[in-house]
Every structure is written in C-alpha cells, then in structure tokens.
Amino acid sequence: MMIEVHRLTKQYGDFRALDTVDLSIRKGEFVTLLGPSGSGKSTLLNLISGMTSPTSGRVVINGVDATDMPTNKRGLGMVFQNYALMPHMTVFENIAFPLQVRGMKKAEIETRVAEVLKLIQLENVANRRPRALSGGQQQRISLARCIVYNPSIILMDEPLGALDKKLREDMQLEIKRLHAELGVTMLYVTHDQDEALTMSDRIVLMRNGRIEQQGSPETLYFKPDTVFSADFIGSSNLFQGRLEGEGDTVTLTAGKDRLAVELRSEAAVGPGDEAVVLIRPENLHIADGAIPEGTNVVTATLLDTVVLGGVVRHFLRTEDGRQLVAQVLNRSDRARPKRGAPVQLYWQVGESRLLKADPTFSKQ
C-alpha cells in the first residue's frame, strides 16, 4: 500500500474533526475524499501530508511510519486551490524552482521542465509570467511544478474550486489523463460530487469525521449503503415509511403511498422497521400512456421543467408535499406536461433501492 492510516483522530478542543479513521490506498490509485464542509476530508489530507499532527493514530507512507515525519521528508507532491505561482518568475522558472531547490544540474532541469511542459501541452507559454495566463493554464502550471520532481504520491485539495464550470470540466479530464500517463497515486479532496464521479477510481465519502461509505463511483451511485450516501451522491427521490409483508417483495407505506420494494439482506431492515426507498430521477418515469404492469405508481403535480442541454428535469410535488425529480433525455419530438398539470409517475420495483432509515439524517 502507498498510503495507510490507522485509527487516525484529530481533536480541536471539544470538536473531533476526524474520528478513528482507517484507510488504505493502493499504488497508482486515484482516490477522492468527498463530503460536505466539516466532514473531515481536508483534515485527513492535512494529516497525511504532515501539515497537521494527529491527536492519535498512525500514518504510513510507502511502508514507513510517517506520523512524526516532517512534510518535506514524506516524498509527496501537493496541489491546492491557490496556485501559489511566483509572479516575478516565468512559467519555465516556476516549474524549475523545485528542481533547483533539490540541487539538480542546469542541463537536467532544462530537460525535465521541457518534458513536463510537453506533457501538460503548454510548451508555447514557457516564457510568459503567470499573470498572462488563464486560470486553467495557471492550475496546469501548478500541477506541472508538482509532478516535475516525480513524486510517487500527489495530494490535491480542492484544486479546481476557483475555476468556472467549463474550465473545471476541462481540467478534470486533464488531471485524469495525467494520472493515467504518469501512473502516480493521487489523493484528491472535493465537495463536488460530479467531480468525484468523473475522476475517481474510488470515492471515500465522509460525514462528521468518519468514512460513511467507500467504493467505485458506480457503487456509490447505484448501490449506496445509507440514506446520506444516496442523497449526497447524485440526485435522489426518497420515500420513508414502515415495511409490511413477507417474502422477497414487501410493501413500504409512505403517507398515502404504498410501494412495493425488493427486500435485500444487506439493507438490514425487515417488516415492521422504518426504511427509505431511493429512486434516481432517471428511473422515475412520467406516464404518457398505459403504465406497465408490476410498477409503483404515485400521483404528483408538475411544478417546473428545466432544460439542461441533453436532459430535461421535471420538478414535482405529491399530494402529501413530497418533492420529486424526474429526468428524461431531451428530445424535440417528445411532448412535455404543462406546469401545474397532474401526472402519474411510475418506476419498476427493481429500479429502486431499499435503505435503513437514519434518524440523524435531514435532507437539505
């Protein structure tokens, strides 16, 4: 393992920012720490980097106990939201600076910087100063300055937060490309779920200083283990109620609605328990004709429709006030219901996921 943390804890007075976290990261893996503000993701990154000392627990890097090791001895590369480029230096000089500090010979520096500029596809700006570059170019230079000395591990803390949407999306693909080409281990911090889903081999979702769930982007999106995971990763429609019945398919009573759900052993719920049914917006269909047999059906009123390029999102409300979202592909030949119109919504039983109710969870 490239990085291991064992029962890592960080306490600030009465506030526990990180609570007995265990995590292992393999060589060459791209792992994203995802979560809302205050979830502990940046605290965990800072403990791994050595910028903060743990209250208890251990940090192991490349098989060596690094818990008390200074940051500059850990062999890590770091990239932050603040580009931290030196304005009086050219792009070439900014990238070369870490190599100069390490005492590398001039000819080697020139060769290595030229290689990295080619890798990030910015050879044509080598003699410019940072202020003459776009935000995306500056972030790529910041990344180049990190990778120029060949660290085996790169830590990135919200590096794209200052960029606009288009530049951010472009940089996500750029970082993913560099990760594939370099084969380095990357630990990335973000609160942006789309960023995590786009870039990661594995997402570590954090909540209140602990790991809520971890797995591939597909696992966290399609198979969340908790209500918090279901709600934080992607858009969600949640029905909470009590389970009734027996067998593999049971009924959840949520207000006026009685919904058939598949009973999964890993959900750790059964008849008589409070549970939550998750339906993703792309699985919630608006009826425009006969409704297929074996589906759940609820009635709602269309509140609004938003076009998001290739998809359309319909925002709806049921009779008991539950807010729902349905998403369909944007097609010019498809008629759309009018605002205020009553509609019937349906989904297949297998398109929902059953979760244990969480009394501490409150949908924002």
TrEMBL record:
UniProt catalytic activity: ATP + H2O + polyamine-[polyamine-binding protein]Side 1 = ADP + phosphate + polyamineSide 2 + [polyamine-binding protein]Side 1
GO CC, alphabetical: ATP-binding cassette (ABC) transporter complex
Residue intervals of the ABC transporter domain: 3-233
Pfam families, sorted: ABC_tran, TOBE_2
EC number: 7.6.2.11
Listed PROSITE patterns: ABC_TRANSPORTER_1, ABC_TRANSPORTER_2
EC category: translocase
Keywords from the named record: ATP-binding, Cell membrane, Membrane, Nucleotide-binding, Translocase, Transport
GO molecular function (one): ATP binding
Subunit structure: The complex is composed of two ATP-binding proteins (PotA), two transmembrane proteins (PotB and PotC) and a solute-binding protein (PotD).
Family label: Belongs to the ABC transporter superfamily. Spermidine/putrescine importer (TC 3.A.1.11.1) family.
Function as written in the Swiss-Prot or TrEMBL entry: Part of the ABC transporter complex PotABCD involved in spermidine/putrescine import. Responsible for energy coupling to the transport system.
Full protein name: Spermidine/putrescine import ATP-binding protein PotA
Encoding gene (name): potA
